């Protein structure tokens, strides 16, 4: 998991002229702050909040505009240079402005424009990786509010070269059917048909309750509130994944691959054990015959999870989670991301004492197998 800070012309240069007034576009305020506008609405988060890696002061201080953001946040050639500097062969690419599940486009209130924005982003992302497609994992946006259109877009983007599908982990937050509802079966089936994993990124539901819990800022202050709110968003993925598991989505779609993105791995052993305990207590198999095995077994086989700052779980729980189901990420260039020398420091702390074959799986092979990343043109060396 990494993100691209989208340049200001992603949509205005690709959408038909009839949409230009309402299309997402970047504006610079009188005091030099770059903001995104959707029609006449400003996006709540300024551009600089998406690219704070290496910034001179701690968050919530952020770059005022794109000029102050690190070039690797928005320029592919600069990103490749940065990747070389930290020893990364390939990075998965997630959006910012459209939302972590494409949910921001719902605010446009025009189905034709909403779909056009998703398609324009997906086209742009393939253009963005053109300096070296081998080293990027493009993750397509999905118009989840229109299942038929989403199925068509999944097939189109597979042909374009996308390697994964971004989907909201909580469509029920937007007055749509619950994520375990049969309404979404065509999405799961389409993903199986093209053999692309579905990414459930943190914050792809309506996370305002976690970030803006009543009284939190007054009780904690800005910095501590930002930390506790952010951690709440991470933990929400655990709840959403439990919803998917107990809804029978995984046993009904045995070739479906899900990735819990940016939510960590330390919670997985507890969740699996708790689900199995509850499953046995409630005798779920008598009610839901599609379950031939315990929930933990489906999670073990069909769910991958990403770790970046954790060291405890990486040193103690990898066997319980599944060594071949853990992916390493940096979340560059977001707040709390790993940046520069910190990347290697965390890798050494989390995996340095583990056998070389385990390091190679977590740091490369698991992701390469999942996303179809070709072998690099240089040898992999543990600790390099």
Structure notes:
By secondary structure, this protein is of the alpha/beta class. 40% of the residues lie in helices and 11% in strands. It has helices at residues 76-86, 111-128, 147-160, 185-194, 208-211, 216-220, 222-246, 249-252, 268-281, 284-287, 295-302, 312-316, 318-321, 341-351, 356-371, and strands at residues 2-3, 24-28, 34-38, 41-42, 91-94, 136-140, 164-166, 198-201, 258-261, 303-307, 326-328. The strands form 2 sheets. The chain has an 8-stranded parallel sheet with strand order 1-5-6-7-8-9-10-11. Strands 2-3-4 form a 3-stranded antiparallel sheet, with no helix packed on it. The longest helix has 25 residues, at 222-246. The mean pLDDT is 90.
Which range best describes the helical content: under 10%, 10-25%, 25-40%, 40-55%, 55-70% or over 70%? 25-40%
DSSP strand tally: 11
How would you name the oligomeric state of the polypeptide chains in this document?
single chain
**Coarse morphology:** globular
What low-confidence regions span 5 or more consecutive residues with pLDDT below 50?
none
Termini separation: 21 Å
Quote the beta fraction.
5-15%
User: How many H/I helical runs?
Assistant: 15
Structural class: alpha/beta
Main sheet: which strands, in order across? 1-5-6-7-8-9-10-11
């Amino acid at each position: 998991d990494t993100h691209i800070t989208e340049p200001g012309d992603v949509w205005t240069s690709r959408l038909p002229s009839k949409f230009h007034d309402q299309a997402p576009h970047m504006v610079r305020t009188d005091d030099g702050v770059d903001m995104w506008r959707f029609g006449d609405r400003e996006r709540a988060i300024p551009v600089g909040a998406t690219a704070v890696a290496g910034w001179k002061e701690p968050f919530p201080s952020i770059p005022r505009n794109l000029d102050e953001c690190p070039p690797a946040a928005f320029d592919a050639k600069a990103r490749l240079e940065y990747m070389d500097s930290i020893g990364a062969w390939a990075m998965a690419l997630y959006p910012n402005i459209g939302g972590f599940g494409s949910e921001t486009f719902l605010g446009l209130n025009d189905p034709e424009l909403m779909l056009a924005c998703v398609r324009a982003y997906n086209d742009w992302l393939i253009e963005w990786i053109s300096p070296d497609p081998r080293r990027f994992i493009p993750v397509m946006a999905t118009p989840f509010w229109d299942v038929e259109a989403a199925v068509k877009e999944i097939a189109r983007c597979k042909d374009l070269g996308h390697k994964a599908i971004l989907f909201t982990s909580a469509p029920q937050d937007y007055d749509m059917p619950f994520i375990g509802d049969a309404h979404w079966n065509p999405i799961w089936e389409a993903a199986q048909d093209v053999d692309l994993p579905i990414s459930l990124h943190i914050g792809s539901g309506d996370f305002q309750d976690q970030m803006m819990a009543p009284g939190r800022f007054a009780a904690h202050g800005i910095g501590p509130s930002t930390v506790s709110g952010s951690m709440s968003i991470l933990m929400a993925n655990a709840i959403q994944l439990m919803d998917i598991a107990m809804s029978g989505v995984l046993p009904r779609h045995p070739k479906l691959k899900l990735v819990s993105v940016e939510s960590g791995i330390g919670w997985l052993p507890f969740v699996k054990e708790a689900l199995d305990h509850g499953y046995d207590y409630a005798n779920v198999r008598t009610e839901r015959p599609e379950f031939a095995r315990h929930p933990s077994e489906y999670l073990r086989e069909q769910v991958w999870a990403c770790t970046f700052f954790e060291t405890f779980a990486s040193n103690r729980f990898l066997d319980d989670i599944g060594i071949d189901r853990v992916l390493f990420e940096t979340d560059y260039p977001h707040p709390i991301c790993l940046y520069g020398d910190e990347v290697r420091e965390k890798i050494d702390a989390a995996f340095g004492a583990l056998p070389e074959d385990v390091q190679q799986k977590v740091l490369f092979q698991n992701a390469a197998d999942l996303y179809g990343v070709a072998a690099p043109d240089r040898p992999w060396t543990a600790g390099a």
